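Example 4.3 (complexes with small molecules)
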Amino acid sequence: MATTRARSVLKNKKLYKVKVDEKLCKGCYFCVKFCPMGVFVRSDIMGDLGYNIAQVKFPEKCTGCKACLLYCPDLAVAIEEQKDGD
Ligand code: SF4
Ligand code: SF4
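Answer. The structure with iron/sulfur cluster bound is encoded below.
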């Protein structure tokens, strides 16, 4: 029974696409610090503005809480709920 419920929860879990815009990110890493699910990591990738940008490492952990959208001072994060077939 518990296994069936667990399967149902997993099946109904919403998935999100998470993106960091390399043109806007200034590498402040607020998203790394404040995402409660640890979706972002620091990276060695240099963005267009000359800063090492944040990287989306674990998008499957995103719950869609939108904390990253609130904390990013440069509007560099975008999240989008994935629809079936995405
Ligand atoms: S909070 Fe925004 S600007 Fe700062 S590292 Fe994350 S994506 Fe880049
Ligand atoms: S929406 Fe929430 S869980 Fe998803 S990446 Fe942003 S802060 Fe993390």
